[in-house]
Amino acid sequence: MVTAVLNGFRRREVLREQVVALRGQSVPVDEILVWFNNPGDGSHLGFVVGDGVDVVYSSRNFGVWSRFFFALNASSEFVVVFDDDTVPGSRWVENCLSTMGSHEGLLGSVGLTFPGAVGEHGYRGYSRHGWAEPNEGVVEVDFVGHSWFFRREWLEFFVRDLPDLSRYALCGEDMHFSFMLQKYAGIRTFVPPHPVGDRSLWGSIKGKEYGNSAESLWVSNPSNFRGLMDEFFRLQRREGWRLVHEEA
Question: pTM to 2 decimals?
Answer without folding.
Answer: 0.92
